[in-house]
Please model this.
Amino acid sequence: MSADVQPSAVSPASRVLRNLLRSRELAVLIVIVVLVAVTTIKNDAFLFGSTGWRDLLLTPSMLVLLAVGQTCVLVTRNVDLSVGSTLGLTAYLTGRLFIDTNLPIVLVVLAGVLMGAALGLVNGVLVAWGRVPALVITLGTMYIYRGAFLTWAGSDRINSSDMPGAFKDLGTESILGIPVLTIVAVLVLALVGYYLRTARGGRELYAIGSDPDAAELYGLKVSRRILAAFVLSGALAGLAGVVSAARFGTVSSSVGTGVEFEAVGAAVIGGVAIFGGSGTVWGAALGAFLLVTINRALPVLGISDFWQQAVVGALIVGAIILDRFLVSRQEKALVAARDTGPGSTSPGAPALAPVVPSTSGSSPESSPESSPESRPESSTESEEVTR
Model:
């Protein structure tokens, strides 16, 4: 007997609205709006000053690129701690190419991205095929890349006068009131977000992070996907290095120090699970925006530097605790749905009586096959007739 499948009574628009209200991204966005509003009330120059709106959009652009790349790695149940050192190396490479060569700006930008991708490739090969935990590998390459950067740069410093004006204009120019570097970050965010949501390769990254062993048994190219995630993270860190050089106009040996932890924190605050399998680049970008806005807003509100770092740390810890709570609640809901569903054998589930096929027009109760007591009597009558 088959049960009729009824269509959902909830409209698609209602489902979208319900999912939106439950999303972590909306919660982070509300916090950003409240923080900006409170800070602007305290000092209206924060938003309405000569550079207030521009700085609000421009300053997070570099961290957004790093957070997007970090998200691609985190959803596979890995982490990339070398992005800060990669950013420093590519930023210095950008300056040296302008000093030592006459390459056009486009080729210099491409060289920075390719160098970042190459450094990410090293991480990916060691993690995917070396089967070494990503935390260990990228922690080691973070120090290796930073050491190579310090050896190469030494006490040298790339100054603003060493770079062409057209390149530095990228860090100051705007289109329709939106900074160029912010537009670049949003374009990258949209492309990666679309790929992760719609492309098969993007969905496989989430499958790998949810259960790597099951993904491998299913036939997914786990090593290849993890390698691609690290390459993408390195490439975006390289692009962030180019953005840093254009944004600040100078490059020193301290560029990118500690920014890898901000990238991880931005992704986690934005809803990307540190244990892999869930999260979006949109949430990571909002997390980056929130971290940068906090660093700019708290001094205006008269809060010391110590409390700035404490607030960021509390947000990260709170995001991880919330993520584990939501995952635990979802697991309990799935177990409860399984135990009370049709065909369940748990004590709380209704038992299903076996259906005995009946002969023509007879009910299961009147059928001889359904009554164990009727079979001995019929055999006795048969013996008497025979006698």
In short: The CA atoms of residues 60 and 289 lie 5 Å apart.
